[in-house]
Amino acid sequence: MEAVLAHLRNAIERGEYAIGDKLPSEAELCRTLEISLPVLREALRALQTMGLTVSKTGKGTFVVANAVEDPTFGDYAASDLLEVRRHVEIPVAGYAALRRTPENLDHLAHLLDRMERETDTTAWVAMDTLFHLAVAEAAQNPVFRRVIEEIRDALARQSAFLNELGGRREQSNREHRAIVEALIDGSELDATDAMAHHLDRVETTLTDIVRPARTDSTTEGGPEA
Length: 225
Hints:
Blueprint lengths: L1 H12 L12 H8 L3 H13 L3 E4 L3 E4 L8 E2 L2 E2 H22 L2 H16 L3 H18 L3 H9 L1 H15 L2 H17 L2 H23 L6 H4 L5
Antiparallel strand pairs: 1-2, 3-4
Helix pairs in contact: 1-3, 4-6, 4-9, 4-10, 5-6, 5-9, 6-7, 6-8, 9-10
Protein name: FadR/GntR family transcriptional regulator
Pfam families: FCD, GntR
Keywords: DNA-binding, Transcription, Transcription regulation
């Protein structure tokens, strides 16, 4: 899927498909790129998340931008989402370290164990949002949980995007483990540092994904088999 995405993204960024152009039909793209329909549809969804295309039911996929600027996850732009997460989740982790209960720690440890064993991306993404909700619950302030609930769909979409295109799952598990260990230790400083590091890595991966696609012999000639 990554190779198909890079191929289509390069074609858009090079101007082979201009703003307003309709991409070839799914059947035509599958035939010319020699790929399956599920792989193509994953790549088309990623293009739309990146803000390069829009899909219109019954009409097809149309180019709306020739460069990636700020991906959208649900109702929120990535930059807006990350800004809020930094201002909310970092201090929340500190409060959680000071206020967590044994039940909070048991719940987080159980979630973390399940995430580290999970191999299905969809199931892992669902637990990823539950993990961040659980940290907010451990802060013992219902308003924090309500804020995370509000952005829960966007968090899930961002998580899926980063895992599909950035291979973030194992790294996220390690970062989550560091957060839980800080909460167990009751260290406000370590908890805020661990959450800040986690969000830093999210931003770095996002930035790597949205940089202009690299043009090389593989992408110019189509995706590798």
